[in-house]
Amino acid sequence: MAMNILTTAQLYKMAPAVFADAPDTAVSERYGFVPTIEVVNSLQQEGWYPVRAQQTHSRDTEKKHLARHMIRFRQDPDRQVVVGDSISEMVLTNSHDRSSAYQLDLGLFRLVCSNGMVTPTNDFGGIRVKHGKNVVENIIDGSLALANQIPRLSESVEKLQSTLVSTEEARLFARAFLALRYGNDWQSISPIRPESLLQPRRIEDNEPTLWKVFNRIQENMMKGGITGRSASGRSTKTRAIQSVSEDVRLNRSLWQLAEEFLNLKQAQPISKPVFKSIIEGEFYAA
Q1: Does residue 276 carry a pLDDT above 50?
Q2: Mean pLDDT over residues 38-48, rounded?
Q3: Residue 280: is its pLDDT beyond 70?
Q4: Which residue, among 93, 96, 104, has the nearest Cα to 35 in the 3D structure?
Q5: Are 157 and 83 in contact (CB under 8 A)?
Q6: How many angstroms separate the CA atoms of 179 and 172, rounded?
Q7: Shortest CA distance to 250 belongs to which of 124, 106, 97, 119?
Q8: Which of 26, 190, 200, 29 is nearest to 112 (CA)?
Q9: How far apart are the C-alpha atoms of 179 and 209, rounded to whole Å?
């Protein structure tokens, strides 16, 4: 499957922090600075090519080269692994302002909506590498280990695709995600209702499977544009998620939520009492 590999100029335009030549001046002497571009170049040598990039907006223009950034990598067309209706990717996040270490995760790029997601680290072995002299070697080793986890990721997607959910279960799933997004007091904070998150953007996404419910919620939340009401009652529209850290947090949380629902549904239908136990349990506390 064809892909557009980012040129150096395109990568710089999307995420200039990738090319930082020094860290924040406040870092300690033990901080081992390694430019993100070195990691990008090394991953390309291993057959993973940058296809998309973004970074968190910084109001301080002098610090834009330090901001948290994300680069998504894909293998060449002959080696790409299709997972359901998506393509497997590698997702690298980093910053040079001490706010995060290097993080490498598995991701999925859904073809029908041109939307990317990040899978949770605890299930698929994402790696976290502190800034230091061995960053590149550790990330390369991690990429090889993560690539071996793609079959497991495919199995999880297949389970989500084959699991049917009722209208009420889908609504409870959306309620649970709004609690993740806005906190347990989401009903007084969220400008949108669960039903809005469940609206499909294309006919084929209206199927009553956990996978399609998952994707409807993920796309609507990440891309924004959902009409709702503010706390004062004014009409408003949600904004697309631009923050790299929030992008990763919400994607991981939504994936964990889907797997939690899947596990519960295998034992019993998802009801309001079960939903309440999820909200108040260790899953949300984490």
Answers
A1: yes
A2: 92
A3: no
A4: 96
A5: yes
A6: 11
A7: 119
A8: 200
A9: 21
